[in-house]
Amino acid sequence: MSDYATFHPQHVLCPVNLTDAAQVGLQHAAALARRFGATLTVLYSVEGEAPLPPSQVREAVSSWIPDPLVAATATVEPIVRHGHAAEQILADAAEHDLDLIVLAAQRWPFLQASLFSSTTELILRQAPIPVLVAPVPLD
């Protein structure tokens, strides 16, 4: 991809963790998938024990996708892995033919060392593909 003006994603990855911030990211990812006719893969990963069975995760995340046309083409993959979330997301990006990662990230207060969480920072620094971050203010 040499010219970002012609960037046309065909496969978008949106990692979620069942938080309000993740729902915002998924709405952005769904809008992009609809605009470009791209496949949207929703990756659910947790560190440690899964709070919900995969079928309930799939149902919850599917209800977040506001556009029925996008929902019909979205692939919801509730993957539970042990380990750091950023490592799981980066591994998925490296293993599959993806064009874009869409994340929602809560911003930290201005005087903290980082603007985003360590997970978001790692993905931004190490992702093999473009990353779109939708900032979500802290409540």
Could you explain the architecture of this structure?
The protein has helices spanning 20-36, 54-64, 68-73, 85-95, 118-126, and strands at residues 11-16, 39-44, 75-78, 100-106, 131-136. By secondary structure, the chain is of the alpha/beta class. It has a single domain (9-136), classed as Rossmann fold. Helix 4 (85-95) runs parallel beside helix 5 (118-126). The longest helix has 17 residues, at 20-36. The chain is globular, with a radius of gyration of 15 Å.
Terminal residue distance: 38 Å
Question: What's the CATH class, please?
Answer: Alpha Beta
**What does the main sheet amount to?**
5 strands, parallel
What would CATH call the homologous superfamily? HUPs
Detail the poorly predicted runs: none
Number of beta strands? 5
**Percent helix range:** 25-40%
* Rg from alpha-carbon coordinates: 15 Å
Range of strand content: 15-25%
Q: What distinguishing features does this structure have?
A:
Rossmann fold, 39% helix, globular, 5-stranded parallel sheet, 139 residues, alpha/beta
